[in-house]
Amino acid sequence: MPQDRQNRLFSRGSWPEASRIADVLRAETTGGILLIIGAVVAITWANTPWAGAYERLRDTVVGPSSLHLDLTLGTWAADGLLAIFFFVVGLELKREFVAGDLRDPRRAALPIVAAVGGMAAPALIFVLWNLGPNGDLRGWAIPTATDIAFAVAILAVISTHLPSGLRTFLLTLAVVDDLLAITVIALFYTDQLRPAYLLLAILPVAAFAVLVQRRIRSPWLLIPLAVVAWVLMHESGVHATVAGVLLGFTVPVLRRDGNDGPGLAEHLEHIVRPLSAGFAVPIFAFLAAGVTVGGLSGLLESLRDPVALGIVTGLVVGKTVGIACSTFLLARFTHAELDDDLAWTDVIGVSLLAGIGFTVSLLIGELAFGQGSERDEHVKVGVLLGSLTAVVLAAAVLRLRNRVYRRVHELEERDDDQDGVPDVYRHR
């Protein structure tokens, strides 16, 4: 007798959630392509005779010094623009666990366990590489992050049709991964904590929460409060992007009238996501990814640094082993099985894809070693090389199964009675 789909790993969720995930991934695909373009332009520019112009642009200082906001453009991108990105992360997380399929603990367990395994294994590998006298343990969190925009852009480029269960898993894994990453940033990469400013930051966050709980969505009220919260968080010593996540958490997911339909969180996500994916993250990538490699000799010199080696092996080996093994152990202890159309090869392929660490990895590298430092340059080489290796291996594995994915995709799209809901969701 076939096993209940509720006890299967990577089974389809509900149709509303599957359609929402598809919309999110389409937006992330566009943002991911822009991100890749920004990174390629930066790397190319930084390795031309005009590299000095790129560095001057990145290091241009703007902002009022009286408020301690005279920051370089690179810092503005890392602290300011990525706060928009993490605001969307906060909205995604709250919606997933309040109204999404992940409100079911059985469905939430898989991406949470996989995200923890996918962070622990890369961190451990990095630490093992850096235990020697030439190592530096400050960057242990660099290879722990997954860049979902980059990952789904690669899926679009290699033209593979991941089944909806795997697409949902990849997105929710990355969202939980982002939550863990911002927690790590707040706890381990805060140099000088100023409690007074941190307490003051609670006031605009609380005011923002009161307004959104009353379903007040006026940008003339919400944006100034968000900016004040960001400034105070920046002054507190805690990384300013934490303000974005906290503000996202305050937004209600469910409608006040109790009816079905998009709530305020989904409404704001629909407005802010294009700004995040289409502008904030690509600009950060452009200002953060420009590393002067110096040809093959420069590449080899960077890879002599255990920091770079720890990042490359952490992203490629650590992510794959951590996610795949934690998923296998979860299946073993819960007696769950993979969904009918999937094999463990698919889990390995998605685990390799999660080894694409870019946006948050580069951010943590700057926080750990300082923007523009020699080790920060080695971090960029490690992140880029590790992500590129993960791309090649993931593409090879997933393309092998693309015929199966196409068949599942056709099944998930089939709607014989033309009611707008694919038959596989209506009859499951």
UniProtKB/TrEMBL annotation:
It is found in: Cell inner membrane; Cell membrane. Na(+)/H(+) antiporter that extrudes sodium in exchange for external protons. It comes from Nocardioides humi. This is Na(+)/H(+) antiporter NhaA. Keywords: Antiport, Cell membrane, Ion transport, Membrane, Sodium, Sodium transport, Transmembrane, Transmembrane helix, Transport. The chain crosses the membrane at residues 33-53, 73-91, 112-131, 137-158, 170-189, 195-213, 220-249, 279-300, 307-331, 343-369, 381-400. It comes from the Bacteria. The keyword Ribonucleoprotein does not apply. It is a multi-pass membrane protein. PANTHER family: NA(+)_H(+) ANTIPORTER NHAA, SODIUM ION/PROTON ANTIPORTER NHAA-RELATED. Gene3D superfamilies: Na+/H+ antiporter like domain. Its main location: membrane. The lineage of its organism: Bacteria, Bacillati, Actinomycetota, Actinomycetes, Propionibacteriales. InterPro entries: Na/H_antiporter_dom_sf (IPR023171), NhaA (IPR004670). It catalyses: Na(+)(in) + 2 H(+)(out) = Na(+)(out) + 2 H(+)(in). NCBIfam families: NhaA. The keyword Kinase does not apply. Belongs to the NhaA Na(+)/H(+) (TC 2.A.33) antiporter family.
